């Protein structure tokens, strides 16, 4: 069977058996796919029975994980693992230490750990913590570069008598020596080269207050918020706060320097009281015109929206920048309450969704502009 036909056969399962016989490797792939995707309830409703045959039903989670690692490329393994925990909620992938130890570190696995860590015994939790740390180290390494670049800022260009080729000011030199233009040779004769120093612009102190919804649907945003806060922590002239909320509000600022431990303390799920969280964030603001409040939530308010609107309006009136993010991740369009988002935008808040890198750039531009 050629490669194209084999792909169709694996996608369609037993109903496509007429396409031809599978070799030993493809048969193993078919069994592994059936073990996972045969759980899809929509197949029965459509009268389709996806059967991989040859022992798929006897596979344990550990066997399946071993098989897909051996039979598929890494990117496919990551997709299969993600579907297992996110789509089919196969919890023993994260609660059996032998299985968890084999899982590829990924953001999907980290989000799954955040959802299921309350089911884990201490041994499994320690294994999960190591998995989380690997993912966080990778995320921080990637984002830290973006943050440093965004906050490197403009540099002052102060005239100096110290001559250094790196600090030669071409534009000012040409302007100052235009009177020495030689029309015959069509060149400017430089009699007075000018130089500048390049000192890092000093930022006036600012506060960045991240208010993060920890309801179950916001797992990705909670994860990226912790990493973003850790990368912002310690930047000159910036004080970072990180606050998580559902119906209660928890200030996690003291844990920002260790995002792994911070995330292991987060409890996803439950209702939301967004207005109460913004009210708490408002109390943290010290200099209103040098503060940015970043509210990260899907805006499905469990409490009365009146308090939220009132608090955001007060923040804006006092000169505080309010940014409402329906998602802080790399995954595209978020699901959020568009009606409440529109009301906040009408007040003057900036409403949207961002990647962590784009948020760093936004903060740098906002802070650097004052």
TrEMBL record:
It holds the Pfam family VWA_CoxE. This is VWFA domain-containing protein. It comes from the Bacteria. SUPFAM superfamilies: vWA-like. InterPro entries: LolB, Uncharacterised_CoxE, VWF_A, vWFA_dom_sf. It comes from Acidipropionibacterium virtanenii. Gene3D superfamilies: von Willebrand factor, type A domain. Residues 205-364 form the VWFA domain. PANTHER family: OUTER MEMBRANE LOLAB LIPOPROTEIN INSERTION APPARATUS, OUTER-MEMBRANE LIPOPROTEIN LOLB. The lineage of its organism: Bacteria, Bacillati, Actinomycetota, Actinomycetes, Propionibacteriales.
């Amino acid at each position: 069977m050629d490669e194209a036909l084999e792909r169709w056969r694996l996608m369609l399962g037993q109903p496509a058996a007429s396409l031809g016989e599978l070799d030993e490797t493809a048969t193993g792939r078919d069994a592994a796919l059936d073990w996972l995707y045969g759980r899809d309830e929509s197949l029965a409703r459509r009268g389709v029975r996806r059967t991989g045959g040859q022992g798929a039903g006897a596979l344990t989670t550990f066997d399946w994980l071993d098989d897909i690692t051996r039979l598929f490329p890494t990117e496919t393994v990551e997709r299969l693992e993600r579907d297992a925990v996110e789509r089919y909620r196969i919890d023993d992938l994260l609660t059996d230490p032998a299985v968890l130890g084999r899982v590829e570190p990924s953001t999907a696995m980290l989000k799954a750990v955040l959802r299921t860590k309350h089911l884990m015994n201490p041994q499994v939790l320690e294994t999960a913590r190591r998995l989380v740390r690997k993912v966080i180290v990778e995320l921080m390494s990637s984002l830290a570069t973006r943050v440093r670049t965004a906050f490197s800022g403009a540099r002052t260009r102060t005239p100096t008598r110290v001559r250094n080729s790196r600090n030669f000011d071409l534009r000012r030199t040409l302007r100052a020596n235009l009177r020495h233009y030689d029309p015959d040779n069509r060149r400017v004769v430089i009699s007075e080269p000018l130089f500048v120093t390049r000192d890092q612009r000093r930022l006036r102190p600012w506060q960045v207050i991240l208010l993060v919804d920890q309801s179950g649907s916001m797992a990705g945003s909670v994860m990226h918020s912790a990493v973003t806060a850790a990368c912002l922590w310690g930047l000159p002239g910036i004080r970072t706060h990180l606050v998580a909320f559902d119906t209660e509000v928890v200030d996690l600022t003291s844990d920002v320097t260790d995002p792994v431990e911070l995330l292991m303390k987060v409890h996803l799920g439950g209702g939301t009281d967004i207005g109460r969280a913004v009210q708490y964030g408002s109390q943290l603001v010290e200099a209103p015109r040098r503060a940015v409040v970043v509210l990260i939530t899907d805006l499905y308010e469990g409490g009365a929206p009146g308090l939220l609107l009132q608090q955001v309006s007060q923040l804006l009136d006092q000169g505080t920048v309010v940014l409402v993010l329906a998602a802080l991740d790399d995954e595209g369009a978020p699901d959020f309450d568009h009606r409440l988002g529109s009301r906040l935008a009408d007040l003057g808040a900036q409403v949207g969704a961002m990647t962590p890198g784009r948020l760093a750039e936004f903060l740098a531009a906002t802070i650097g502009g004052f």
